[in-house]
Specification:
By secondary structure, the protein is mainly alpha-helical. The protein folds into 2 domains: about 10-75, Winged helix-like DNA-binding domain superfamily/Winged helix DNA-binding domain (Arc Repressor Mutant, subunit A, Orthogonal Bundle), CATH 1.10.10.10; about 80-240, Four Helix Bundle (Hemerythrin (Met), subunit A). It is built from 11 helices and 2 strands, in the order H-H-H-E-E-H-H-H-H-H-H-H-H. The protein has helices spanning about 10-25, 35-45, 50-60, 80-90, 95-120, 120-135, 140-155, 160-175, 175-185, 190-205, 210-230; strands at about 65, 70-75. A two-stranded antiparallel sheet has the order 1-2. Helix 5 (about 95-120) packs across helix 7, helix 7 crosses helix 9 and helix 10 packs antiparallel against helix 11 (about 210-230). The protein is elongated, with a radius of gyration of 22 Å. It comes from Pseudoramibacter alactolyticus ATCC 23263. Keywords: DNA-binding, Transcription, Transcription regulation. GO terms for molecular function: DNA binding; DNA-binding transcription factor activity. This is FCD domain protein.
């Protein structure tokens, strides 16, 4: 006779289910402190050691933060909860840097579209300052770092937290490679000028409140980056990728 009894959930799964339910119903929020181990153990009828292991498992996936002597808290930076699963999915699926780039391209285009709809005067001023700083920064490494902040700012301005968090998780996945590719592009004789021009057009489209044009400008920018990446195959080898 086949045993149809469903397998029992592990302690960390039960605790995660409870946390997710409370988050869903807004009874828990980022930064909130979770009940002490003793209370979890009493409610679930398990040892405090089992609860402690469960909390550590949740910390590993970025859902909670453990403060020594201060308790356990829902992670205020919940994008961290996406990083580990994205990294694992990438490696198990045999992903390439182009998979990440195309995923990022879809999100960046939508972020630009929404940013053009939601940007305030202060937002536009911030983007303009970053674009100007990139264009006038002689150090390619520093310019690449500003480039990263520029795109991150557009994602924030979009007003869609999921887009911003998803982009953040991809950035963490291949941070070293994506960073080096930016440096390589702006180190090229024509690369810096092209990027500066594209960023300027993108800011203009967002400032004009034209979502369709902003999406088009971002698409042009991402396609340019993709064409350049095709010449950097030596950079994108498994030996250069560091698992975060």
């Amino acid at each position: 006779m086949t045993n149809s009894k469903a397998p029992q959930k592990r302690v960390y799964q039960i605790i995660m289910d409870q946390i997710m339910t409370q988050l869903k119903h807004h009874k828990l929020h980022p930064g909130d402190r979770l009940p002490p181990e003793r209370k979890w153990a009493e409610e679930l009828g398990v040892s405090r050691g089992a609860v402690r292991e469960a909390i550590r498992a949740l910390e590993m996936i970025g859902l909670v933060t453990i403060r020594q002597g201060g308790g356990t808290f829902i992670n205020a930076d919940y994008s961290l909860a996406m990083t580990q699963p994205m990294t694992i999915s990438f490696w198990l699926g045999g992903g390439t840097v182009y998979n990440v780039h195309h995923f990022r391209q879809c999100l960046e285009q939508e972020a630009a579209y929404l940013a053009a709809r939601h940007a305030t005067a202060d937002d536009i001023a911030t983007l303009q300052r970053l674009a100007d700083a990139m264009a006038h920064e002689p150090d390619s490494v520093k310019s690449a770092a500003i480039d990263r902040r520029f795109h991150d700012t557009i994602a924030i301005i979009s007003g869609n937290g999921l887009i911003h968090d998803a982009l953040a998780s991809v950035g963490s996945l291949l941070d070293d490679i994506l960073y080096e590719s930016r440096v390589a592009i702006i180190s090229e004789e024509q690369g810096e000028g092209v990027l500066a021009f594209q960023h300027s057009l993108l800011v203009d489209a967002i400032a004009a409140g034209n979502p369709d044009l902003a999406l088009k400008r971002m698409k042009e920018h991402m396609l340019y980056v993709e064409d350049f990446l095709s010449d950097l195959t030596d950079l994108f080898t498994t030996s250069t990728i560091q698992l975060k």
